[in-house]
Amino acid sequence: MTAITLPLLLIAAVLFAVLTVAAGLIWLERRLLGLWQDRYGPNRVGPFGLAQVLADMIKIFFKEDWIPPFADRPVFVIAPAVIIVTVLMSFAIVPFSRHIMVVDLNMGVLFFLAFSSLGVYGVALAGWSSGSKYALLGSLRGVAQMLSYEVFMGLSLMGVVMLAGSYNLSAIVAAQERVWFVIPQFIGFVTFLIAGVAETRRLPLDLPEAESELVAGYHTEYSSLKFGMFFVGEYMGVTLISAFITVLFFGGWRGPVLPGIVWFSLKTCAFICFFILMRAALPRPRYDQLMAFAWKVLLPLALVNLLATGAIVLAFFR
Amino acid sequence: MWSIIQTLWKVFLHAASKRKTVLYPEVRPHLPARWRGRIILTRNPAGRERCVACYLCAAACPVGCIAMQAAQDASGTRYPVFFRINFSRCIFCGYCEEACPTYAIQLTPDFEMGEWKRQSLVYEKEDLLISGPGKYKDYNFYEVSGVAIEGKNTGEGIDDEPPVDIRSLLP
After folding, report:
1. Could you report the predicted ipTM of this complex, rounded to two decimals?
2. Rounded to two decimals, what is the model's pTM?
């Protein structure tokens, strides 16, 4: 009996936690942006403005859910779900603590890469099915950006996989017992971080949205809860990338005194805050700069890192 | 790359700097006396309405939110029968105050005029009229102008010279 109920409870708990965090990020992002821009941010509804999340949700629930007559209806409806599902699937393999994980896949890193690639479909379908210029341009950019950054996102993780000798995320955490992989794999960490920002379409690499140029990019035509789903998907993506940075480069749940889950949450939270700091501080690059940076700087860097790590591992750890 | 890291660090340091926001209902911003807010109608030092219903404010108003009806009482003083400002249209430009020859209409440093109903923003004369002279304490239009009313003929005002007999050639 417990063999069935326990995993189900765990799945429910993870779903609940992830969705709560994603909703809470609405508030956190606005407060932190305010903090770094010498403002206060939402501080009126509830203690510290925390009930702002609730107010925002009520608002977005009661907005008109409008599907434009020129949109491709079924695809238009499915697209936001694709984004949410692909992000949520990756949470299945995150080791929140030594024993808290939904499934201990032995090809965890590949699973994560596969689902983050599938996330491109959400953007592509949303832009295509909207039947509007801005949405199409946004999704065009989104797809190109995500595909380009996907390439070296995978490559940047191979160094970690080599050092740990496994694709399994718990094995990777276990391999960081003596030293976090951020030190031997610093280049891998930097490239993964940048790729992660591009994958989640966050500022400064939010060219698929680019309010100042493309209205709202691929979700221009969306309203109400479907628009909300894109946002929740984006926030969950931020959480996911932060969680993976923690797991892959910063020792996951490892840490002194406090229990593993607390260390994991603290580290993840720090990276979420860093994501928001980037949004507060950095301007958006031009589109050709973005692509040139990916193909001419980061891809060679990831390749060199891969080769160097491989050589060192072969020479000294065999 | 270095400049990006510098930017991130500098923005991060802003977390410790002073907030620019004024937390309005708790902290009230200082409004100078000439701040252009809610419009009032004032009285002269004798306690009578200053407004002479000349329509200059209504003519100057760019959004046409002032309406009135002129009348004259037994003493020859002009006054508005009704004076109405539609604050849902008013843009608080202050042109009415500039146009007013009698300092009757004045803007005050008060902006908290929120209402639930649009109709409540239409202020009648009773709502606009205050009991004092506002920003100009000693000004009384009929005392300094050449207009004749009961008890004061032309030329009897302050700094007023007797009218010239235009039909005589003698100085």
Report:
1. 0.73
2. 0.78
- A280: closest CA of chain B, how far (Å): 7
- Contact of B8 with chain A, judged by CB distance below 8 Å, is answered with yes
A233-284 confidence digits (pLDDT tens): 889 889 999 988 988 888 878 778 788 788 888 889 999 999 999 888 888 8
Of A39, A278, A282, which has the smallest distance from its Cβ to B19's Cβ? A39
Q: Kindly state whether residue B113 falls inside one of the protein's structural domains.
A: yes
Inform me whether the C-beta atom of residue A270 falls under 8 Å from chain B C-beta atoms: no
Euclidean distance between CA atoms A113 and A44, whole angstroms: 40
Q: How far is A183 from A168, CA to CA, in rounded Å?
A: 20
Shortest CA gap B21–chain A (Å): 6
Q: Taking the C-alpha atoms of A67, A70, A74 and A77 in order, what is their torsion angle to the nearest 10 degrees?
A: -30
Chosen from B3, B6, B10, B12 to mutate, greatest number of chain A CBs within 10 A: B12
State the DSSP H helix or E strand holding residue B41, giving kind and residue range, or none if neither. Answer: strand B39-41
Whether B15 contacts chain A with CB within 8 A: yes
Q: Residue B156 domain-assigned?
A: no
Distance from CA of B115 to the nearest CA of A (A): 21
Chain B contact present for A281, CB below 8 A = yes
- Residue B42, domain extent: 29-139
Give me the CATH number covering residue B81: 3.30.70.3270
Q: Is residue B75 part of a domain?
A: yes
Angle between helices A73-91 and A108-130 in degrees, nearest 10: 160
For A110-162, what is each residue's pLDDT tens digit?
888 888 888 888 888 888 888 888 888 888 888 888 888 888 888 888 888 88
Domain annotation covers residue B63:
yes
